[in-house]
Amino acid sequence: MGTSSSAYLLHVTKMKQWLISGHEVVTMDDEWLERIRKHQSMQYKHGVVRLMPEGWLYPATSAIFLDKLQTFEFRSEDVLVVTFPKCGTTWMQEILWTMLHNPNLDNPEASKEILIRSLDISCDMMLDGNYWDVVKLRSFEDLFNTLCPGKKLEDGLNIQCLEATPGRRVIKSHFPLQLMRKDLLEKTKVVYVARNPKDAIVSYYHFMRVVQLFNYTGSFEEFTKNFMNSEHVYMPYWPHMKAAWDLRHHPNMHFVFFEDMKSDIMAELKKLNEFTQANLSLKQLESVADYTTFSKMKARGEPIQDPMYDKDLLDKYGAYFRKGSTGDWKKHFTPELLQEVDQWIEKNVEETGICFK
User: Fold this and answer.
1) Which own/partner pairs from 139-148 qualify as long-range (CB within 8 Å, at least 24 positions apart)?
2) Contact 70, 20 (CB under 8 A)
């Protein structure tokens, strides 16, 4: 970009702008922020925006990094894991990284957190100002200093580290396909993981309670209604999933349901083996399946070890690794709230062919 990041950011946060993708950047007003902050901290120094027409809700710094992504060079050997938050992302990252880089379970790099080995290209916008000052993600800072000497952190920790990472990359993204470069599927392979939205709501609710960036204190019912109204960061849910669903037959797209992974992981690993051309033996796939069980991943520890969590809540509820199950929503919804959510789901899946198990 022709201007510095700070100058461009100032420009974005003071007036409506357009992204290279064609999305309009609309700044959320103080009244909206005040209402949302009643139940969460929203520690974004530069404010919050919606990207229209879909209405993606992000920190204002997203405008910088989404434009950078339009020229980011994906490689044909890369695998990009795309999900809405709390839909099996970390599990799929660990599976793919293990398949491609640790099939014999002897790679010493496996001792590092998965979010260091498989960087999140949609995360740089979340490290805006105050939050970075609070949590000091030391392992990420060490990685940046090693891979990107002399470069500026505000120009993107993850995106610059990925650019400097050699070999086959397993990349994470919560950005939807609508915001990625239009030739993405001609450039690289994409694995999209979808999850029953009722379980996604429950998992996201507990996650936002634990992470210091959000410190969500509202009720589960309030959280769910805000979820349906797309008033949490990374929303909305349906356009995110439907864009991938519509492309599920593309040869470079592998669309999988979290519930199918839980039901028969070996069947799904065999599909991933073929899709990624990893060429693993049945014995290696069985080792990968065992190594990436929820219990073993949880025992190895959270994928970020730095102090980004409320420690008391983390010990009680977990964050990335909470239950890793299906059907946990049955313990959370009242009959009245469940009826609302079921109607919301039915309205959004009709005539799509989408069916949640």
Assistant:
1) 139/112, 139/113, 139/304, 139/305, 139/306, 140/116, 140/306, 143/116
2) yes
The whole-model pTM stands at 0.89
Please check whether residue 61 is in contact with residue 125, taking contact to mean a CB–CB distance below 8 angstroms: yes
Residue 47 to residue 129: CA distance in whole angstroms: 10
Beta bridge partners of 25: 17, 51
- Sorted by sequence, the CB contacts under 8 Å of residue 54 that are 6+ apart come out as 23, 176, 178, 236, 239
CA distance 13 to 25: 9
Three-class DSSP category at 58: strand
CA atoms lying within 13 Å on the CB side of residue 328: 16
- Whole-angstrom CA distances from 45 to 13, 35, 334 are 11, 17, 36
- What does each of the 357 residues of the chain score in pLDDT, given as a tens digit? 334 555 545 544 454 589 999 999 999 999 998 898 888 877 688 889 999 999 999 999 999 999 999 999 999 999 999 999 999 999 999 999 999 999 999 999 999 889 899 999 998 998 775 555 555 567 788 889 999 999 988 888 899 999 999 999 999 999 999 999 999 999 999 999 999 999 999 999 988 888 877 888 999 999 999 999 999 999 999 999 999 999 999 999 999 999 999 999 999 999 999 999 999 999 999 999 999 998 888 787 655 555 555 555 555 555 444 555 565 767 779 999 999 999 999 999 998 999 887
Place of tokens 């009722």: 198
